[in-house]
């Protein structure tokens, strides 16, 4: 194997460095786009809804609470409430049995932009036992308050 000129070796190193940098930039951009709530939810607005849990989907990457809400004309609407990522919820004690069908909940959060009846949860209260789930910044927490 012949030694290569210093200039050719430097060119290849710079090229590899630029390729790595481009890969990192693309990965970061993809991650930011995936986690951009403002693209899916209207983060400038906040609404509160109340209903009964129909189903708790404790799935990756983000669990969902499906709730039924009674409408003014005696019908019902099915809302899909998105929570923080599953691994962080597990860390604070949430599991697949935390929300059960029939639980009455009050949810506050950002409504969906394009998807009607969707909400990104900022706070979710279960009055029966005082459970409160909150998304504070990028960190979720759960607490139980004593019943009045």
Can you describe this structure?
By secondary structure, the protein is α+β, with helices and mostly antiparallel strands. It has two domains: 6-34; 42-144, OB fold (Dihydrolipoamide Acetyltransferase, E2P) (Beta Barrel), CATH 2.40.50.140. 26% of the residues lie in helices and 36% in strands. The protein contains three helices and seven strands, in the order ααβββαββββ. It has helices spanning 6-34, 37-40, 86-91, and strands at 47-57, 64-70, 76-82, 104-111, 118-126, 131-136, 139-144. The termini are far apart.
**Rounded to an integer, what's the Rg over CA atoms?**
23 Å
The biggest beta sheet, please?
5 strands, mixed, barrel
Tally the structural domains.
2
- Cα distance spanning the termini: 82 Å
Report the top-level CATH class of the largest domain. Mainly Beta
Number of strands: 7
- Apparent shape: elongated
CATH superfamily of the largest domain: Nucleic acid-binding proteins
**SSE arrangement, N to C:** HHEEEHEEEE
Placed side by side, the strands forming the largest sheet appear as: 1-2-3-5-4
Q: Considering DSSP H and I runs of 4 or more, what fraction of the residues is helical?
A: 25-40%
Query: Which structural class should the secondary elements be placed in?
Result: alpha+beta
Low-confidence stretches: 27-34
Tell me what portion of residues adopts beta-strand conformation: 35-45%
The CATH architecture of the largest domain can be given as Beta Barrel
Question: How many helix segments?
Answer: 3
The overall pLDDT, averaged over residues, is 85
Briefly note the CATH topology name of the largest domain.
OB fold (Dihydrolipoamide Acetyltransferase, E2P)
């Amino acid at each position: 194997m012949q030694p290569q000129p210093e200039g050719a070796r430097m060119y290849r190193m710079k090229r590899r460095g630029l390729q790595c940098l481009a890969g990192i930039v693309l990965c970061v951009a993809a991650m930011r786009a995936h986690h951009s709530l403002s693209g899916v939810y209207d983060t400038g607005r906040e609404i509160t809804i109340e209903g009964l849990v129909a189903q708790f989907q404790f799935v990756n990457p983000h669990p969902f609470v499906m709730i039924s809400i009674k409408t003014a004309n005696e019908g019902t609407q099915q809302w899909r409430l998105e929570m923080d990522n599953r691994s962080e919820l597990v860390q604070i004690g949430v599991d697949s049995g935390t929300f059960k069908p029939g639980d009455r909940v009050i949810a506050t959060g950002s409504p969906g932009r394009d998807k009607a009846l969707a909400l990104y949860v900022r706070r979710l209260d279960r009055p029966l036992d005082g459970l409160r789930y909150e998304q504070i910044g990028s960190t979720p927490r759960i607490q139980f308050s004593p019943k009045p």
